[in-house]
From TrEMBL:
Location (main, coarse): cytoplasm
Keywords linked to the UniProt accession: Cytoplasm, Hydrolase, Membrane, Nucleus, Protein phosphatase, Transmembrane, Transmembrane helix
Family designation: Belongs to the protein-tyrosine phosphatase family. Non-receptor class dual specificity subfamily.
Catalytic reaction(s) noted: O-phospho-L-threonyl-[protein] + H2O = L-threonyl-[protein] + phosphate; O-phospho-L-seryl-[protein] + H2O = L-seryl-[protein] + phosphate; O-phospho-L-tyrosyl-[protein] + H2O = L-tyrosyl-[protein] + phosphate
Source organism: Gossypium barbadense
Protein name according to UniProt: Uncharacterized protein
Amino acid sequence: MDQIHYSIENEIQERCRVDIYRKFQGNGALCQIEEGLFLGSLGDASNKGALKSSNVTHILTVANLSLPLYPNEFAHKIIEDTNLMQYFDECFSFIDEAKRLGGGVLVHCFMGISRSVTVVIAYLMKKHGMRLSQALEHVKRRRPQASPNSGFILQLQQFEKTLRGKEYEKTRLDRSALVCQSIFSFFNKKR
């Protein structure tokens, strides 16, 4: 009896959440950023038909929602904080996992304009070596309403500096390795 009560209670909660979230309804088509990566709103996240037809298997929620929509249908990750940069690597792993398993991931916030856009831009910067301006332009071509707020832009600028610093260090180390290799080759020829 308790199991039936629990099942009915879960179904009611899910339906209530979907009804409440419909006010953030998307246009019915998910915004594809690249193969296996979609960007959207809470309305898009509540559209099970569009999610299934787009082969979405994972949902990354970047909003203050304690309970995921369709908890038994999709893998979920919820990031509720506004300091998104500290969660970038965790988000990237979640996105990569969905792609590795042959599925797709919807990254969404309430409106699909700021928080979720920030995570997707950071992902493009890290995975494809894009600069912030390139990644933002890429996303805006696919989702014109994309507009991270000033606080998220600052986080993305800081992230870009971090990435460029790592890139510079890698280039410097690569050059050092080439110099060492050249010196080693030179001395080996002398023998």
